[in-house]
Amino acid sequence: MATDLGELLVPYMPTIRVPRTGDRVFKSECAFSFDSPESEGGLYVCMNTFLGFGREHVERHYRKTGQSVYMHLKRHVKEKATGAAGGAIPRRRNGKVFLDLELNRDFNGEDYEYEDEAKLVIFPDHFEIPLPNIEELPALVTIACDAVLNAPSAYKKQEPESWEEEIQVSRHARSLRQLDNGVRIPPSGWKCQKCEMRENLWLNLTDGAVLCGKWFFDGSGGNGHALEHYRETNHPLAVKLDTITPDGADVYSFEEEEAVLDPHISEHLSHFGIDMLQMQKRTENGHHIDNNSRPRVSEWEVIQESGMKLKAVFGSGYTGIKNLGNSCYLGTVLQVLFSIPDFQRMYVGNLQRIFDYSPLDPTQDFATQMAKLGHGLLSGLYSKPPMKSELIEQVMKEEYKHQQKGISPRMLKSLVSRGHPEFSSNRQQDAHEFLLHFINLVERNSAGSENPSDVFRFLVEERVQCCQSRRVRYTQRVDYCIQLPAPFEAATNREELLTYEAKRKEAEENMRAPPEPVRAKIPFTACLQAFTEPENVPDFWSSALQAKSAGVKTSRFASFPEYLILQIKKFTFGIDWVPKKLDVTIDVPEFLDLNRLRATGLQAGEEELPDLMPPIVLPEDTRGEMSPEIDEAAVMQLAEMGFPLEACRKAVYYTGNMGPEMAFNWIIAHMEEPDFAEPLTLPSMIPDLGPSTSDSPMGATPLGNSPPEESIAILTSMGFPRTHSIQALKATNNNLERALDWIFTHPEEEESDVLSDMADTEPNDNAFSNANSHSDSTLSPDRDMAGPRIKDGPGRYELFAFISHMGASTMSGHYVCHIKKEGRWVIYNDHKVCLSERPPKDLGYIYFYHRLSSS
């Protein structure tokens, strides 16, 4: 038999590989569907590419690639028989576990037992070889099979190894001396004793001092007063206040310079009047909440419709999306997008064509993964109601097990977040930022084909007026979302708010519990009014006066989109630059008429501003050496992350002092270069400008001249193509900052995904989102072929979906969405999908409207 198997496998030996370092083994999910080893047909893993395929898709891969040998993985799960010992270790055949247990949270090891089965399958005859079969298989095949079975999951390999370090017990924990100074810590209202900061607060376990931590690159942190206190007192241990739960807390040792464990943390906290059993960091669903959670309790309950007996719904369009841990921002956005017919038609309607023409690695193809997720949400295959017999059995056992499991977006999330410093992390994110990022991806991956994001695109007309000359300039650009401010001064319950604020401050000063919170009630009409009001233009240069002047800008709709995205600007920044959430309720209407905001263009009697560029102001000594201007604060922020100081200086300089995030991206892109840590050396900052240009208007450099080589070098060092950099500089009269904006708004086809990601996350203060915007003063409706595709129509809309956020900032909390389907509002809360009883339309964050017909 051994000879027979050896001879059988000889023709396929060149195609069988042993996984190497860096190879990802997809043994827990199909590349085209959500089939897994627990599915009825199991999962087939290609022994050459290590991609996983369900039974319906493995034949396609065989026909496309000619790969014949696959490992078939099957997990048989069954509920333990009555009388089985609770808590027994699940039974496993061969000791092999194909699924990572963290990916399969539907099964409790105490209630279920499972058997794993593996075999080699040779196509096209489906010849099966059971595993293990060490004696009969060639050595290479045995080694390859063993490596696949023992390989971690494809996504677990991506997790940083640094997170796997085991935290040790502090040597100070047992002998910690605590001062009997009468300090008692209240359950809320904490603030740093030195700077009044209310985030990232640490309690010193020796003297009870409450102080702020250090600043971190992600925007969190404080002013480092806790560390300063240690240097002054040598009190070694501190606990982070908002992490205290009945299960423990985050403890840091200043002396040991690392996070540590404190086995006596309960006793140490009780010394300051803190009962660990009363502290809570997370809800039962695992979503992060703040220590100052009292003002948000009602928000969590109202938005999730807690306390109501919501009826679960099943079938097509009612499939939930599993939360991978702070991924609810992604799940809610995808649920809304796939409720729009254009997205359904593009990805699910073309499913077979997309799958048939997918690349050799479908896990890295945007269209394939969108089709996969869309089919999972809309097919109903993963949202089936329980059988009547299962319900009867549950009633007999007097228990109810939630039947909705949802689908995992892990493969799509890995793809769409690749290269993005925030979305690739496991931290909570802003759903609005992700939505714009995702629309950008759809745009880039729809070149030459139907683009479903066309339904969101519209033109914005911006009218800028010089206050002195009264002349105007009209420009148009593309946008995808309008952002409405939430003006607190327009609240209808201002007296109540003022009274609450006075009581809250009094309670803080006297270290008492805060009063019952009051939420501001702002009319939607006030938000719309604030949006339409003119805004001042900073550093406005009037071409009519040829000097700086006061300017005002108003924005109107040059076209209306088929689907309107409306974001309420609920988040602002505190003094510590941590996003804060405005606690407001807004009476957002179900029907919306924006026709009065239609742009009118140049009006009779208006005079346009001359089409002139501001002059370039040169320093007196344009030939001598100049020390480059570098934002030293950004340099130090990067250096604190462990990067070489000179590399940080180059990163900040070459990204034009545009902030630590842009500089961080530059570092990641250039850290492999041999001169990465070499000092910054530059020739003269201002090159020889050649003959005098005094005959040019206002002394500006003529656009026909070649841009300064130094400016070109700065842009090319950031990764932009040389030809594109020259084109940008010429178009902006060699203004570096405007050239960078021009590049982002005029992308080349060959430009990298990372650069596009940088572009779509640039912050802006405009009332419109400015995602992927095109600031082109020559854009006009008669340029339909060359310009953006828009679907203009009436400005009358009906609300069909909204995404809500619970929590104090975008860095924490939870998202759910409500979608109107078949005349009923449905709540999508991760994997749970139920009919909504009271959709909280007044507490939404992002609203989605569809255009009403003109009839």
Automatic annotation (TrEMBL):
Per the Swiss-Prot or TrEMBL record, the active site comprises 328 (nucleophile), 814 (proton acceptor)
| PROSITE patterns reported in the protein's UniProt record | UBA, USP_2, USP_3, ZF_UBP
Ranges of residues in domain USP: 319-852
UBP-type domain sequence ranges: 168-276
Q: Domain of life here?
A: Eukaryota
Q: What SUPFAM superfamilies has UniProt attached to this entry?
A: Cysteine proteinases (SSF54001), RING/U-box (SSF57850), UBA-like (SSF46934)
Family that this chain belongs to? Belongs to the peptidase C19 family.
Q: Where is the composition biased (Basic and acidic residues)?
A: 781-790
Q: Which UniProt keywords apply?
A: Autophagy, Hydrolase, Metal-binding, Protease, Repeat, Thiol protease, Ubl conjugation pathway, Zinc, Zinc-finger
Which reaction is recorded as catalysed by this protein?
Thiol-dependent hydrolysis of ester, thioester, amide, peptide and isopeptide bonds formed by the C-terminal Gly of ubiquitin (a 76-residue protein attached to proteins as an intracellular targeting signal)
The cross-references to InterPro entries, in alphabetical order and at most eight, read: Papain-like_cys_pep_sf (IPR038765), Peptidase_C19_UCH (IPR001394), Ub_carboxyl-term_hydrolase (IPR050185), UBA (IPR015940), UBA-like_sf (IPR009060), Ubiquitinyl_hydrolase (IPR016652), UBP13_Znf-UBP_var (IPR041432), USP (IPR028889)
Enzyme class, top EC level, equals hydrolase
Alphabetized GO MF terms: cysteine-type deubiquitinase activity; zinc ion binding
**Pfam families this protein is in?**
UBA, UCH, zf-UBP, zf-UBP_var
* Cross-referenced PANTHER family: UBIQUITIN CARBOXYL-TERMINAL HYDROLASE (PTHR21646), UBIQUITIN CARBOXYL-TERMINAL HYDROLASE 13 (PTHR21646:SF105)
Indicate the segments forming the UBA domain, all copies: 629-670, 706-746
Protein name, entry field: Ubiquitin carboxyl-terminal hydrolase
Positions binding Zn(2+) in this chain are 192, 195, 212, 225
Q: Where is this region: Disordered?
A: 759-790
What processes in GO biological process is this protein linked to? Answer: autophagy; protein deubiquitination; proteolysis
Q: Where is the composition biased (Polar residues)?
A: 764-780
